[in-house]
Amino acid sequence: MSATAEQQIEGLFSMPLDEAMRTQRAIRRLKDDPVDDAIVLQLIELALRAPTGSNAQNWEFLVVRDRAVKERLGALNRQAWNLYGGIGRWLNRNEPKMLRLMDAVQWQADHFAEVPVVIVACLRGPRLPFPPVMSSSYYGSIYPSVQNLLLAARSAGLGAALITLPLWSTFLARRALGLPWSVTPCAVVPIGWPRGRYGPTTRRPVGEVVHLDRYGNRPFRDANGR
Ligand SMILES: Cc1cc2nc3c(=O)[nH]c(=O)nc-3n(C[C@H](O)[C@H](O)[C@H](O)COP(=O)(O)O)c2cc1C
Q: What's the number of CA atoms in the CB half-sphere (13 Å) around residue 207?
C-alpha cells in the first residue's frame, strides 16, 4: 500500500470491538461523497480475515462504482422491493417502527445509483445440493466476511447495509454484473458516508434466545420471562 493510502486509513479502524458491534446497523441513507479506493480495499482486506469452509477462500468481491452497473443492480433491487415492500407496508400498516424502516429501504431503492460504492460479495464454485449441511458451509463461507466488512465500515464511520433484494434472480444479477456461471453473488453492501447517525440496535434479550443443554430450558431469562 502506498504511503498516501496508508495516511488515508490511519486510525479509521481502531474503534473498540464491542462498540463497533453494538452500534453497527443497517444504514441505508448515504451521501454521494466519494469513498476512496484505499478505504474500500482495507474494508475488504479486513473482510478476508473471516473463516471459510476448508479454508477454501473461494470468495470474490466485486466493487461497483460504474453508474451503469449500479443502475442495473438498482433496477433488480427495485423490482424485488416493489413487490416485497408493497406487501410489507400493508402487513406492517400499524407498526410505525417497521414503516420507518421501510421508508429507509425505499430511500435506498430510489437512490441506489447515487451510492458511491456497492460491494457484491460472491463465492466461486458450485453449491452442492446434498447433504443439507453443504448449504450451511457454502453460505457460511461468505457471511462471516460480510459481517467483518460491516464492522470495519462501522469503525470507519461509513454507512453500510447487508442487502439481498438485488439478487432475487441470480441469473439476472449475474448478467447485470458480468459474472461467470462459476461465481455466485451472495450479498450486496452499498457503502457511503451516512446522512444520519449511528445508534444502538434493538435486539431480543440474550436470556430469551439461549437454551441450556436442551431446547426449551432457558434459565437465563429475566424476571419478566425474557
Ligand atoms: C440475509 C439478509 C438479507 C437482507 N436483505 C436486505 C435487503 O434486501 N434490503 C434491506 O434493506 N435490508 C436487508 N437486510 C437487512 C435487515 O433488514 C437488517 O439487518 C435488519 O432490519 C436490522 O436492522 P438494524 O441492523 O439496523 O437493526 C438483510 C439482512 C440479512 C441478514
A: 8
Q: Is 105 in the pocket of ligand 1 (CB under 6 A)?
A: yes
Write the CB contacts of 52 (distance below 8 Å, at least 6 apart in sequence): 58, 59, 141, 142, 144, 145
- Asked whether the beta carbons of 105 and 85 are under 8 A apart, the reply is yes
Question: pLDDT per residue over 45-58, tens digit each?
Answer: 999 999 999 999 99
Show the domains of the chain with their CATH numbers.
Answer: 16-195 (3.40.109.10)
Q: Identify residue 74 by its one-letter amino acid code.
A: G
For residue 101, give the ligand 1 atom closest to its CA.
Answer: 21
pLDDT bin (cut points 50, 70, 90) of residue 9 is confident
- Ligand 1 closest atom vs CA 104: 11
Q: How far is the CA of 106 from the centre of ligand 1 (A)?
A: 13
Give the Cα separation of 181 and 169 in Å (integer): 13
**Sequence-distant (≥ 6) Cβ neighbours of residue 16 within 8 angstroms:** none
Q: How far apart are CA 107 and CA 129, in angstroms?
A: 36
Give the ligand 1 atom nearest the CA of 80: 8
Nearest to 60, CA basis, from 136, 145, 151, 117: 145
Rounded to the nearest whole angstrom, what is the distance from the C-alpha of residue 162 to the centroid of ligand 1? 6
